[in-house]
Amino acid sequence: MTAQTLYDKLWSSHVVHEEADGTVLLYIDRHLVHEVTSPQAFEGLKLAGRKLWRVDSVVSTADHNTPTDHWDEGIKDPISRQQVETLDANIKAFGALAYFPFKDKGQGIVHVMGPEQGATLPGMTVVCGDSHTSTHGAFGALAHGIGTSEVEHVMATQTLVAKKSKNMLVRVDGKLPAGITGKDVALAIIGKIGTAGGTGYAIEFGGEAIRELSMEGRMSLCNMAIEAGARSGLVAVDQKTIDYVKGRPFAPKAEQWDAAVAYWNTLHSDDGAHFDAVVTLDAAEIQPQVTWGTSPEMVTDINGRVPDPAQESDPVKKGSIERALAYMGLQANTPINEIPVDIVFIGSCTNSRIEDLREAAAVAKGRKKAANVKQVLVVPGSGLVKAQAEQEGLDKVFVAAGFEWREPGCSMCLAMNADRLQPGERCASTSNRNFEGRQGQGGRTHLVSPAMAAAAAVAGHFVDIRAL
Amino acid sequence: MKAFTTLDGLVCPLDRANVDTDAIIPKQFLKSIKRSGFGPNLFDEWRYLDHGEPGMDNSQRPLNPDFVLNFPRYAGAQVLLARENFGCGSSREHAPWALEDQGFRVIIAPSFADIFFNNCFKNGLLPIVQPAEVVDQLFRECEANEGYTLNVDLAAQTISTPSGKVFAFDITEHRKHCLLGGLDEIGLTLKHEAEIKAFESKHRAAQPWLFA
């Protein structure tokens, strides 16, 4: 048998039907559903008189619109409230394996909730009407975001009409320096291949540095595969994957566990498998990353400078840099570590898991928010993350440093709820997108790791965590 | 879904790379539970001078005179000419809904983000990839000639310019078939119901832990 990549294995084990042009019907094991991209899909089912093909494939929560404070007051914005209530009603009418509604202790960002519930398992196909579904690839699952028409298609048929992507291997060789996280690796990769570098590919992340990452680090990395243009990111299954899954609510139980593990241990690329593209990075060279522009590929390291458009010969790229600097309110050649911040956001499906909060708390401990920093939001990824952080006393560390400890949700990553930047405010953010207006119209986003965000909060400007 | 066969459409050039879905339709408009009515908020932050929120009367808002969509010469455009990596970012189908609701039927760019590209086909919108030099040429011709139109023929897979130049484009047979007929994809897939069920039984036997 020919050597297969992990992606090849996951793909071929889910093909239901194949047409002559290579279009296939791909079977979907897990469908994660949230309030923003599902109402029109449920409406479509209703209009056509259709049901869910497999109720037990659906796991759902409300995350994008939910407030992160004053939960006793409910959702004040009436249209946000209507969207969340619409999800409540749709799940009630159509059913689900599990639903974690607003204020439930299991509620959280869909990409934090899935893995922590064991609803994401190795070998699965996982879809969700959200581009950051690539996160779940950290478990050796084939996971990607879909649009609302496809949400409805999966609900009605348990399949997706799909075409196979090409295989890319991104190998990070050697050991990461101390303090360098999955987030820094993700941004360094995007800086190297660009935001369209992975378009048309499924990216498998491999190499010693990736194997050394924790599951949280791998999730941060796969989460941002989409920012490199790839719908799916993947990491091979190893003992860390299996240890993480074991004992979670929806993980296989006693009699099935051994059979599942035996299968999961085959979920890696075979020796000699063919990749259409291979990119390598040297882990030792990766420094703490900070974005300076309005696309995640506009990134440098903490010791770098804002680029000078005059040095760019390509007119389209030059125009992009000029527009980005104007939007960001930055001068060419400014050292990154001299850029002051107004707001700090620690959270999102990229960086709101327990390990992320521990890293931020380690920096915040015994320090205070700088006077020029107006607000520091710490938003745990789920109710369970929040409870664990409180058990470890992390909330007290944050509050003592002058940070705000909030309720779980997507929050200021995309600013659909009340947490948002005002025009011109500059934010050190652990989220995934620095697009214009992403965190609030006119807001200026710099993407960093949780430790770097906490360091910016206490220093008042970007600073190398290794120099603290 | 609206069928797509041929189009003679006025062209609007949007000369920016990496136009993301947050720019195409900002997040505050994603709170709607409908799939129509997004057109007036297409490119909201670039198109208007004030801050847009759902429920506003968009006809009363101040337009940004420097944004290309507001130039009188591009009013009623059905073909959007764009730069590389158009539609990057989120999976929100509200982006193609907004473009379609505004009246666009074709988008031509050197490259598209995968999820956005796929979402277009579900909404009667035809995204066409052309080499960067062809896109450059179309930008030049469009900007130089007021009233510049392109003819797009899906069956023939061609784009024709007013001066008679013809460029071919690729599309999968499946997508072409669905667009030409305006077909309901769920209905098509359900013709394979027996195959899906057979696959499911085999899958359940092999990995019973996937089924609660």
Q: Which characteristics define this entry?
A:
heterodimer, A: 468 residues, alpha/beta, 5-stranded parallel β-sheet, 15 helices, 19 strands, 31% helix, B: 212 residues, 7-stranded mixed β-sheet, 7 strands, globular, branched-chain amino acid biosynthesis (chain A), metal-binding (chain A), iron (chain A), 3-isopropylmalate dehydratase large subunit (chain A), iron-sulfur (chain A)
Number of strands of chain B: 7
Strand line-up across the major sheet of chain B: 4-3-2-1-5-6-7
Query: Low-confidence segments of chain A, ≥5 residues, pLDDT <50?
Result: none
Considering residues with a beta carbon less than 8 A from a beta carbon on another chain, report the largest interface and each chain's count: A-B, 83 and 59 residues
Domain Aconitase A/isopropylmalate dehydratase small subunit swivel (chain B): 1-132
Protein name (chain B): 3-isopropylmalate dehydratase small subunit
Pathway (chain B): Amino-acid biosynthesis; L-leucine biosynthesis; L-leucine from 3-methyl-2-oxobutanoate: step 2/4
Subunit structure (chain B): Heterodimer of LeuC and LeuD.
